[in-house]
């Protein structure tokens, strides 16, 4: 019998996006449960570590977006053909975390003047930098 999957995350892209993309790549159906921010307090204590995303696999909850991404990458044969390629895949996943941290400075800033400074840096410097690096790595793997 095939496993059943439920992804719990906020109604946003964020850390849930890569998990959703991996399910799409693997043509794997899953229940995408979007938790509204105002309902988060009632869900928080039901998660393994009080945070999202959480992936439920056949009723068992697992947390941590990168651990979930690595699990799905293995399921969908996206871990490389050898140990070095697997290492490069892990490198990309960890670098995506660095990239997300850069974006959070912009997305979480409340002060309009500081938000504009972070927006400009993120969209004009960080995104082009990381996309260029990702493209260079991926093009060598093809």
TrEMBL record:
Gene3D superfamilies, alphabetized: 1.20.1050.10, Glutaredoxin
Coiled-coil spans in chain: none
Any one Pfam family match given in the protein's UniProt record, by short name: GST_N
Keyword Transferase: yes
GO MF annotations, alphabetized: glutathione peroxidase activity; glutathione transferase activity
Keywords: Transferase
Catalytic activity annotation: RX + glutathione = an S-substituted glutathione + a halide anion + H(+)
InterPro entries the record matches: Glutathione-S-Trfase_C_sf, Glutathione_S-Trfase, Glutathione_S-Trfase_N, GST_superfamily, Thioredoxin-like_sf
Domain GST N-terminal positions: 3-80
Record-listed E.C. numbers: 2.5.1.18
GO biological process: glutathione metabolic process
Family named by the database record: Belongs to the GST superfamily. Sigma family.
PANTHER family assigned: GLUTATHIONE S-TRANSFERASE, HEMATOPOIETIC PROSTAGLANDIN D SYNTHASE
Protein's UniProt name: glutathione transferase
Organism, as annotated: Sitophilus oryzae (Rice weevil)
Lineage, broadest ranks: Eukaryota, Metazoa, Ecdysozoa, Arthropoda, Hexapoda
Gene expressing this chain: LOC115874219
């Amino acid at each position: 019998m095939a496993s059943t999957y439920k992804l719990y995350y906020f109604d946003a892209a964020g850390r849930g996006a890569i998990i959703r993309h991996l399910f799409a790549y693997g043509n794997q159906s899953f229940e995408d449960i979007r938790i509204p921010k105002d309902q988060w307090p009632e869900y928080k204590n039901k998660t393994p570590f009080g945070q999202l995303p959480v992936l439920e696999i056949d009723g068992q909850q697992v947390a941590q977006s990168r651990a979930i991404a690595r699990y799905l990458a293995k399921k969908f044969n996206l871990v490389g053909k050898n140990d070095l390629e697997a290492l490069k895949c892990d490198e990309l996943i960890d670098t995506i975390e660095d990239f997300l941290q850069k974006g959070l400075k912009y997305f979480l800033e409340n002060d309009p003047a500081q938000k504009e400074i972070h927006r400009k840096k993120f969209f004009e410097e960080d995104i082009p930098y990381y996309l260029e690096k990702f493209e260079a790595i991926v093009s060598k793997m093809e």
